[in-house]
């Protein structure tokens, strides 16, 4: 799996008040230091998980030799706006750049889980409103195609204060689902999403939604401790 990686640098120095006789101890850090330090690392995930840090440029990234967008949206829907009602918040809730967004992908046989931490906050009330309005909707792949049914439903069992949803696309030959979580934790916004991925070469196996909820729970806990 090839993914653009970014190196995180943290500058540490003493801070003195100019013109005063008293020196104030402290650290001056790069603005993105806290979110970078708050990310889960490979050794904090289940054994056999494939882990990659991602450059947070909010643009296309290379996954399995294919160019993909973290955000998928803009598709017509009924009600209007449901196709991308939650999707932009998966990556675009914060400003671009590694000083504002830190991200990793945890890949299992069964799921690709993308977690982003943002130096920002998410409007959780708006997320709830969108999820309620788009509990049942249709998406249209082009102007001549029939609508494809979609559902959005809340998922229980996650950490307190975290909004988690399951979105399901109902196709003639079956269904495909993704899970999404949104939270504000001590001044850091967390957004996570999962996509179906069957890859026997990955030793770690995902059992959904529990694997997703476990990672979200660990991530929230680490933000609180950092």
Automatic annotation (TrEMBL):
<feature type="signal peptide">
    <location>
        <begin position="1"/>
        <end position="25"/>
    </location>
</feature>
<protein>
    <recommendedName>
        <fullName>DUF5642 domain-containing protein</fullName>
    </recommendedName>
</protein>
<keyword id="KW-0732">Signal</keyword>
């Amino acid at each position: 799996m090839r993914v653009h990686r970014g190196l995180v640098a943290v500058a540490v120095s003493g801070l003195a008040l100019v013109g005063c006789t008293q020196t104030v101890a402290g650290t001056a850090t790069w603005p993105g230091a806290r979110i970078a330090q708050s990310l889960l690392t490979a050794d904090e995930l289940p054994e056999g998980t494939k882990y990659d840090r991602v450059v947070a440029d909010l643009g296309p990234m290379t996954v399995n030799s294919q160019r993909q967008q973290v955000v998928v949206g803009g598709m017509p829907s009924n009600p209007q706006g449901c196709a991308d009602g939650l999707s932009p918040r998966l990556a675009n809730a914060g400003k671009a750049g590694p000083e504002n967004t830190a991200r990793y992908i945890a890949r299992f046989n069964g799921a690709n889980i993308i977690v982003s931490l943002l130096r920002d906050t998410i409007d959780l009330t708006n997320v709830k409103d969108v999820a309620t309005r788009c509990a049942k909707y249709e998406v249209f792949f082009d102007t001549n195609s029939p609508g494809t049914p979609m559902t959005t439903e809340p998922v229980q069992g996650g950490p307190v204060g975290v909004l988690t949803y399951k979105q399901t696309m109902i196709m003639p030959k079956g269904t495909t689902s993704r899970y999404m979580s949104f939270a504000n934790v001590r001044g850091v916004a967390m957004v996570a999403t999962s996509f179906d991925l069957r890859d026997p070469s990955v030793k770690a196996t995902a059992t959904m939604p529990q694997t997703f909820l476990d990672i979200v729970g660990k991530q929230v806990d680490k933000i609180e401790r950092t």
